Amino acid sequence: MHLDDVARCPAPQDGNARHASAAKGKAKFDAQIVAIAAVESATVIYSDDDHIRKAAGSRFEVKGITDLELPPEDAQVSFRFETPSANEDDEPLEE
């Protein structure tokens, strides 16, 4: 699918011009994402959008969020947050 093909798509004849315009706009946006991936020589597109999957066809691997691996637990860092005191003269809070 090329961007020019999307631009030439006839609007549906259901009388809902606003819906047709939104759908056409989304299709153009999806086609742009796939076109950028092609120009940048990408091999994978990360998206949960089924329309992107369809537009990408077999040219790209499309991975959704459920396809991503979680980092190992030991590689995740815990942050220690200190609560600011109400008065600057107060001693720091101790645990």
Q: What share of the residues does DSSP label as strand, in percent?
A: 5-15%
Unreliable stretches covering 5 or more consecutive residues: none
Q: Largest beta sheet, briefly?
A: 2 strands, parallel
Kindly state the percentage of residues in helix: 25-40%
Oligomer: single chain
Order of helices and strands: HHEHE
Q: Using the CA coordinates, give the radius of gyration.
A: 24 Å
Give the CA-based shape: elongated
Q: What class do helices, strands and sheet pairing give?
A: mainly alpha
Distance from first to last alpha carbon: 61 Å
Largest sheet strand order? 1-2
Number of strands: 2
Q: Which whole number gives the mean pLDDT?
A: 79
Q: Count of helices?
A: 3
Concise account of the structure shown:
It is built from 3 helices and 2 strands, in the order H-H-E-H-E. With 95 residues, the chain is mainly α. The chain starts with a helix and ends in a 32-residue tail after the last strand.
